[in-house]
Design brief:
The chain is of the alpha/beta class. The protein is built from 15 helices and nine strands. Helices cover 43% and strands 12% of the residues. Keywords: Flavoprotein, FMN, mRNA processing, NAD, NADP, Nucleotide-binding, Oxidoreductase, tRNA processing.
Length: 341
């Protein structure tokens, strides 16, 4: 089995699997700006098997040559069903990731994601069946328990079952929505200290500086960034560029690789990239909402470029075009992340 992650220069910079936001076009953009491991959005195995089984052009995700290294995230609660789906998918990716971390109500209803935390036997069986039955490595993504000791034992069990790389979101299952709070880097550091396989730290990373603070404190092999990456896809490099430059680059990718993003993806990404702009110009958002094709999005983008040029000519500030991650934390992170090593 080829351990492709051993061929990638560390630290690993992974773009988290995000429903509606991890499409091929965004992965290709991310690859140009420092990311080196890419995840698809979550594929529900039951639904996948009931629908189109062509992973290259499936409603769950698209991929094509050059879209690598690619990790396809799957979810479910039946080892046999998950293996059946993964066997179809494996020829079109470099690894399969099992979602043991989704805390949403849909996961509770379906009995997957973080709602498998109480069933260690089934969790271990899923990893064991997949790792022994596939030709590609099996990764896992988990959330922590309140207890560091219990979290470490859980992670060790998953490693022993055959997991090759573990991504750890440092929040508990109940930390979501208004109760999100802080991710615990202390939990993640303890996991890294007790596992032999690579570990990715996920949570509390909102700036380029946070990337390196996290790596220093946790000792992890890399970081995984989700929401903050949507607001600033340059978070891994620390580049200082306007959101319009990135939007133009993203739309060029969408047109160069037809089908790599749909209207839903493009609208979601442009809204986040223009977060500051819309905060100051709320009357402009309906113009974005009305776009129904790549061409219409591009027309809207060009109108913003012309607007920016006028601002330059008038000597006005371009702060509105800066990309900034939306702040979600309001207390000192030191309480939860500790001091650097």
């Amino acid at each position: 089995m080829r351990k492709f992650w051993e061929e990638i220069q560390r630290p690993y910079f992974a773009v988290a699997p995000m429903v509606g936001n991890s499409e091929e076009a965004w992965r290709r953009l991310s690859k140009r700006h420092g990311a080196n491991i890419f995840y698809t959005e979550m594929v529900h195995c039951d639904s996948f098997l009931r629908g189109s089984r062509n992973p290259v052009k499936n409603r769950w995700y698209t991929t094509s040559e050059g879209d690598r290294p690619l990790v396809v995230q799957i979810c479910g609660n039946s080892p046999e069903v998950m293996l059946e789906a993964a066997l179809i998918i494996q020829d079109h990716c470099d690894a399969i990731d099992v979602n043991f971390g989704c805390p949403q109500k849909v996961a509770r209803k379906g009995g997957y994601g973080a709602y498998l935390q109480e069933n260690w036997k089934l969790t271990g069986e899923i990893v064991k069946v997949l790792s022994s039955g596939l030709n590609v490595p099996v990764f896992c993504k988990i959330r922590v328990f309140g207890s560091i000791e219990k979290t470490v034992e859980y992670a060790k069990m998953i490693e022993e079952a055959g997991c090759s790389l573990l991504a750890v979101h440092g929040r508990t299952r109940d930390q979501r929505g208004a109760a999100m709070g802080f991710a615990s880097w202390k939990h993640i550091r303890a996991i890294k200290e007790n596992l032999r396989i690579p570990v990715l730290s996920n949570g509390n990373i909102m700036t380029h500086h946070d990337v390196w603070r996290c790596l220093e404190y946790t000792g992890c092999d890399g970081v995984m960034v989700g929401e903050a990456h949507l607001h600033n896809p340059l978070i891994f490099t620390g580049e200082d560029r306007s959101c319009l430059e990135i939007i133009g680059e993203y739309l060029d990718i969408c047109m160069e690789f037809p089908g790599s993003a749909d209207v839903r993806h493009i609208k979601s990404h442009m809204f986040r990239l223009l977060y500051n702009y819309f905060s100051m110009n709320p009357g402009k958002q309906p113009d974005l909402d009305s776009c129904g094709s790549v061409e219409k999005f591009y027309e809207f983008y060009l109108s913003l470029v012309e607007e920016m040029r006028s601002m330059v000519d008038d000597g006005r500030s371009l702060e509105v075009y800066k990309m900034k991650s939306r702040p979600i934390l309001t207390a000192p992170m030191a309480e939860h992340c500790g001091k650097s090593r």
